[in-house]
Amino acid sequence: MRTMIRYGGLAILIAALVVLALLPFASSFVDDWAQRDVELRSQLVFAAAREQIEEMRAQGDAAALDALFGRIAADGRIAAIGLCEGGALTLATGGMPERFSCEAAPADEAAGPSPIALDGQAALVTAHALEANGVGAARLVILHDLAYIEERAGQARMALVLALVAVGFGGAAIASVLSIFILARWRHSVRQAIEDVREGRTEEQGPSDTQIAEEIKGALGELELARRQIDTVHTVWNPETLQVALANELPGSEVIVVSNREPYIHNRKDDGTIQVQRPASGLVSALEPVTRACGGTWIAHGSGSADRDSVDADDRVGVPPAKPTYTLRRLWLTDEEQDGYYYGFANEGLWPLCHIAFVRPIFRESDWRFYRSVNEKFAEAVVAEAKRPDPIVLIQDYHLALAPRMIRDRLPNATIITFWHIPWPNSETFGICPWKEEIIDGLLGSSILGFHTQFHCNNFIETVDRFMESRIDRESDSISLAGHETFVRPYPISIDWPPAALEGQAPVPETRTTVRERLGLSPDIKLGVGIERFDYTKGILDRMRGVDAFLTEYPDWKGRFCFAQVAAPTRAKLASYRNLQAEAEALADEINARHGADGWEPIKLLARHHEPDEVFELFRAADLCIVSSLHDGMNLVAKEFVASRDDEQGVLVLSAFAGASRELSEALIVNPYDAYAMGQVIHRALAMDSGEQRERMKVMREQVEAKNVYRWAGQMLLDAARLRKKERIMRLIDAKERRTDRKGERPTDRRRKPAA
Ligand code: G6P
User: Fold this and answer.
1) At what angle do helices 612-621 and 508-519 cross, to 10 degrees?
2) Is the pTM higher than 0.90?
3) CATH number of 525-707
4) Whose CA is nearest to atom 16 of ligand 1?
5) Ligand 1 contact via 355 beta carbon (within 6 Å)
6) What is the CATH code of the structural domain delimited by 17-153?
7) Which Gene Ontology biological process is one annotated for this entry (predicted)?
8) Domain parsing of the chain, residue ranges
9) Whose CA is closest to atom 3 on ligand 1?
10) 464 partner at 20 to 30 Å CA-CA among 493, 541, 741, 742?
11) 67-100 confidence digits (pLDDT tens)
């Protein structure tokens, strides 16, 4: 304020000086104007009265002239009017001073007005020559009263002074504001300069520009090194190399896995004892060995009947139960929540929406509300479990599409990697979801969003493009929404290698015998297996129809082949799943009735949960395995079958619509919708000689070994590490730019972004 007054006063002073300097010019301007006004009026009077005056003179009518002069002098601005004839004033109105002399008057109009002082009063006199008209030359003289001119000139001067004062004040105000602004910037620059000097000396107050530049150089170097290491060193992936990669690339980081399904379920048996179950879930098969290697915390829904009895006061339990290496944090859901969130929106809405299996998705507003609130619950659990502000959060699957955004809002520095374990449909299909925007927005809270295949990444990006206002960079496959960038990447999921379930397995010939005995089959019968959850996406009915077609086409195989279908009951609360089981049982009965004879039945339906070692035993006893998914993100059963066959025997029949068919091209690829073709493929598999089986199995095993689940996790974590390093560089560059901005230099381009 003081500055304002100071600068305002100065401006007023300057304005006053300007007014004083301009005043003389203003006076002369007013005088000139007054003279021109007198001349003009004088001319007007003369032009108007000339003819009459000359006529009256010619007629010698002095009385008329006198009357005319009187009327003219009635104008207040004309003091008097008179007639000079032969140098003498012969006629004049009453206002003419007695001492007026015609000699003092100008000779004519061209001479202009002459000033005259009469009785202490300033006046001007003008003269106009009249025609002689035989009565002698004469001049009309007009005496102008300057009092009014003085008065008007005074008014004009005053107006001019006021105008100059107003301009002065206005200028003063503008100058004050400008001066304050300039002073503030100048002070800021001085302070900044002092700060910079100080910062250069004391490191704890923040890095100097040189230090930042050094750090950026260092971080870029690290990044380049990391990239080279990833490409060269990490070719063999196993629990140890994953641990090393994590320790090297993300030192001290905290890993939190989040999924609906838990890796270990504690169930109470009828006899009251507790049994630990490994759920039939591709997600769990993949994530469990990875989490075992990485350590950390896995947050999941506690769905087992004895889960509450197996946790500590903080709802945590160390797992695997035999030798804990990580913490399972259980989250409890009410029946209502489970119905709305899990059975309803996730499994009746999103599951059929994303799998093109011709089951109509059901969307209920009440389910959606539970889906949202349960996602909130998971997000809060992540925040509660996080020991650092920047954990690495691995969010799993379609149950938790909203959680990434919710976690991002609470932990902005977290690195959130979301993996979508099921397919992502095309944008037209996804468009029917009433909450598509919310789901996409939720997922775009992630740092990295992973799908099994590039095809599903493309579908997702197209969906975002169609329904959201965002910036898509197709070169780096990234999407920016509200200032946050998400990288969309394919990470083909896989299994543990060598798989834990292989440990303790009997040799293949022994297993073949054991399993055949258990199933009541003759020792030399050829065995086909199918193992999965009782899910309509898996094509269980279709493969049975394939068996039917095979036996119809090749009846000499009757009695020599059996197809064992293991199907773990799943989501049985839903009619679509219950109906499938009933349908499968009816179809198996029908086919068995059609082809079976003498105690032999072609299809054995085993509708119960099998633990991983039982599954592996079945795989090893089989001659062929059928995976006939109508649509599947990846399908790990196919990879598990390959992994189980260390004897390099057995044939995999694989659906063209499972993601795994892209990697396991040595399988016999089939269209599950074509029963006849399936029958032909079964025949081909049974006829395949051991040499060809070995060739195919070897290549597939190499593929699964190299691209195992540690590689899957390792690539995601290394991408996360690269992203973190790039974010660190961006923060450093931003800090440098802020500094540059403060110093008034031109900032560099802020629009660039890191590529994962
Ligand atoms: C699929 C899903 C997993 C799920 C699994 C088993 O593989 O992608 O998220 O865990 O099915 O289903 P469930 O409903 O029993 O967890």
Assistant:
1) 100
2) no
3) 3.40.50.2000
4) 261
5) no
6) 3.30.450.20
7) trehalose biosynthetic process
8) 17-153, 255-332+370-490, 525-707
9) 283
10) 493
11) 888 888 887 778 889 988 888 888 998 888 888 8
